[in-house]
Design a protein that fits this description.
One of its GO terms (molecular function) is ATP hydrolysis activity. The chain is α/β, with parallel strands linked by helices. The protein contains 13 helices and 14 strands. It folds into two domains: about 5-80, Fe-S cluster assembly (FSCA) (GMP Synthetase, Chain A, domain 3); about 125-375, Rossmann fold, CATH 3.40.50.300. The site of adenosine-5'-triphosphate has 20 residues, from helix 5, strand 12, strand 14 and helix 11.
Length: about 375
């Protein structure tokens, strides 16, 4: 991998100008981060929110200019990371003083949660994270089905895909449309009863996978600051897998009211899940509980249950760590097929074993959220 020359890139930024010629990209923004991998130059440009509408139409010309000017570059992908000048402070959920040490599961039996840090996006009641210590355990699948399931429970739900390295939300939700821009803010598209936003709606799913730290954080900042979520009861954040810097920063920057940890039953995944729980505990984010995904295989022909990975590990681990166990989801080809087809299983087959497992999860979490939001259950989805 060659490192492109910063000056060359900045020169291109100076040469591409608005149609009236009054300003160049360099006048309106600043080169934030870049990397060249497999011939594709990924560039993040930091700008003020007010300049984003003028910059956005210049990106195709800028990308062509970069391909032309940067040696070894056969394609370019530029994103704008527009930051809000003054983050809007919002009241964090009220909570009692933490009692003693150990984990602080969100009080599923009632009572108030621990306060979360960081500002809440305007209009959003609470933010919860779906996280896993390790990739590939079904975190995104759980986040999508939980979010849509919470919508079916009558809550107003937003889903933010912060898994910027592998944004799978557009595929799993069957969303191809780019978000609308209104007053320099991104309006999240609506599907299956919820609003959803992913970096995968702004760039190709494959392109974001190789971003480095600053670009990842730029993208996450944009998702947090520049999306107009409107009035939501809950924003579900699909966290990037793991317990590294991106996860820590994200958890610190967002007023997280709780986290759902997804794990498979294998020892290795549980070890990582434990790390995930410890990370949230360190940041005083209450752990809502743990979900065991791919818990057992249920033969679609004879309904025979096979416990491929020694089912039950997550429940035992949750008990050991003093966090609630939120349920188990079977390993089923239909879950993958429905995700690939863009219709979450809670919608595609709500009464299947998998659909019921996710609906039960959503019901439990909705109960906890309602207590947080101090709301009575609604009889209909009011979206
Ligand atoms: N219970 C399940 N049964 C069958 N397939 C599943 C199940 N859960 C997830 N999958 C499939 O496993 C794959 C990985 O799932 P998913 O993308 O949700 O994992 P992830 O933990 O978010 O991964 P990453 O962190 O790498 O983004 C997907 O193809 C998904 O459809």
């Amino acid at each position: 991998m060659t490192s492109p020359d910063r000056t060359t890139i900045e020169n291109v930024l100076r040469h591409v100008r608005t149609t009236d010629g009054t300003a160049s990209v360099a006048d309106l923004g600043r080169l934030d981060a870049f990397m060249l991998r497999d011939g594709v130059l990924h560039v993040a440009i930091a700008t003020e929110r007010g300049h984003a509408p003028a910059l956005q139409p210049l990106l195709p010309e800028l990308e062509r200019g970069l391909v032309h000017a940067v040696p070894g570059c056969t394609g370019a992908s530029v994103i704008l990371t527009a930051h809000r000048a003054t983050p809007s402070p919002a009241p964090a959920p009220t909570a009692p003083a933490p009692a003693g040490g150990g984990h602080r599961p969100l009080n599923l039996g009632g009572g108030a949660p621990k306060p979360a840090t960081g500002p809440l996006p305007p209009g959003v009641g609470v933010v919860i994270a779906v996280a896993s210590g390790k990739g590939g355990v079904g975190k995104s699948t759980t986040a999508v089905n939980l979010a849509v399931g919470l919508g079916l429970e009558g809550l107003k739900v937003g889903l933010m895909d912060a898994d910027v390295h592998g944004p799978s939300l557009p595929r799993m939700m069957g969303m191809n449309a780019q978000p609308e821009v209104r007053d320099s803010r991104l309006i999240p598209p609506h599907k299956w009863g919820i609003s959803a936003m992913s970096i995968g709606m702004l760039v190709d799913e494959g392109k974001a996978m190789i971003w480095r730290g600053p670009m990842v954080m730029g993208a996450i900042n944009q998702l947090l600051g520049d999306v107009d979520w409107g009035a939501l009861d809950v924003l579900v954040v699909d966290m990037p897998p793991g317990t590294g810097d991106a996860q820590l920063t994200l958890a610190q920057k967002t007023a997280l009211a709780g986290a759902v940890i997804v794990s498979t039953p294998q020892d290795i995944a549980l070890l990582d899940a434990r790390r995930g729980i410890a990370m949230f505990e360190k940041m005083n984010v209450p752990v809502l509980g743990m979900v065991e995904n791919m818990s057992y295989f249920c033969c679609p022909n004879c309904n025979h249950r096979t416990e491929l990975f020694g089912h039950g590990g997550a429940r035992a681990e949750a008990e050991k760590m003093g966090v609630p166990f939120l349920g188990e989801v079977p390993l089923l080809a239909d879950i993958r097929a429905s995700a690939d087809a863009g219709a979450p299983i809670v919608i595609a087959a709500p009464d299947s074993a998998a659909g019921q497992a996710y609906r039960a999860l959503a019901h439990t979490v909705a109960g906890a959220l309602r207590r947080l939001l101090d709301k009575k259950p609604k009889t209909t989805n009011e979206k």
